[in-house]
């Protein structure tokens, strides 16, 4: 499974506007016959985490590429992009692959705890092995984006990885609220 994430880092004071614009983008996706995706707002976390994120899971890259092409061909979606560019200071579109089953479906209002593991590509095999030995599900970075986590551990607010220490990886935690489920 390919996990597409859009990371929106708002200009100061534009956090709510970025969130509203992302939800409008989901509405335009629906008019194009595309899945709306999920939109989350950051509750807490460092500057390496975006203010708003959008997520959609694809079965494979062919489906993800077709989705990108449909949006690129849409003047309505391009208008959304133009409006969004005025609101953010940084945008990243990393693709991840789930190391295991994605888990249970989310509901609007759910709280999420994400832990980002930032590490060099050379450290990735050791991090992957450590996560597997601990039985921890994670998303692993595949392409796109700069200074984004190599691995993302997704879970509910009760997820406890306080004792997790991985040599060669910087660990950044964040909390999110699901604002929109398409």
**Overall average residue pLDDT:** 87
Instruction: Output the number of helix runs.
Output: 4
What is the molecular shape?
globular
Uncertain spans: none
Strand order of the largest sheet: 1-3-2-9-6-8-7-5
Walk me through the structure.
With 182 residues, the protein is of the alpha+beta class. The chain is 28% helix and 36% strand. It has an 8-stranded antiparallel barrel. It is globular, with a radius of gyration of 16 Å.
Which descriptors apply to this entry?
182 residues, alpha+beta, 9 strands, globular
Architecture blueprint of SSEs:
Layout: E1 2-10, H1 15-31, E2 38-45, E3 52-58, H2 61-72, H3 75-85, E4 88-92, E5 95-98, E6 111-119, H4 124-134, E7 139-143, E8 151-155, E9 169-181
Antiparallel strand pairs: 1-3, 1-4, 1-5, 2-3, 2-9, 5-7, 6-8, 6-9, 7-8
Helix pairs in contact: 1-3
Please provide a brief summary of the model.
The protein has 182 residues and is α+β, with helices and mostly antiparallel strands. Helix content is 28%, strand content 36%. It has helices spanning 15-31, 61-72, 75-85, 124-134, and strands at 2-10, 38-45, 52-58, 88-92, 95-98, 111-119, 139-143, 151-155, 169-181.
